[in-house]
Amino acid sequence: MTASPMLPFDDRGFAYGDGVFETVLLRDGEPILWDYHRARLRRGCEVLGIPMPSDAALEATWHTADPGERLPQQEVLKIVLTRGSGGRGYAPPLTPFPRLLSHRMPFTPNFSRWSEGIHVCICDLRLAQQPRLAGIKHLNRLENVLARREWQREDIAEGLLADQQNNVVEATSMNVFWQQDGAFWTPPLTQCGVAGTLREALLSHKLIAVAPLPLSELCRIERLWVGNSVQGIWPVVALVTHDGQVQKRWTRPTSDVLQAAGHRLLGFAA
To answer: Which residues form the signal peptide (predicted)?
Structure first.
């Protein structure tokens, strides 16, 4: 396992998206929901056939050389693992030498989106279905890039992505949650989509359950949220078209049980 700040031209992650990554919230230099991030990284390595980095190598990505160094209270750590170099064309090397890279930067949540809620649109792009890749956070995110290009309005914070059968799967960079009949739900991710670590934690604590959400039912649900393990949970207050025309509004209540539960898991103050 090699660590390098530079990516050579023949790296397979650069050439083919042959690798996985994690985006981790650090608080006072320590990773939040790390067990879930490590588990997803391991699943991705197993699917792609890339050796899993040692715990020591992963921990080195957030440990500092100076234990007395003053760190930002909150940071974002991005870990990228590629298969490394070698092989011929798409054929991977028989003995891979993975390349582990990382970068960290200070982070401040968008508090206004927590309190005021956001507008979302429905993306025209439909996600391809590939069960072998479903759930993992592999390096080929071109669908998300194309979907994010669909709107430029600053008042639209996220776009919802559906599959080939017009079932809601996720947002461009977040998972989707909704409330119906007093219960909290999230779409299944067996065919496509990324299994976010905050979503996994909410499922593990039995705070949400899995159910399909057809686009045709979206305007009938009681409430809607998007969220991930870095930004926390944003309540959706309006579904809009790409040009900002409102299709559906949801009331923002004074008490948000799902957001409070998710933010406790992330260590955000209530």
So the answer is: none
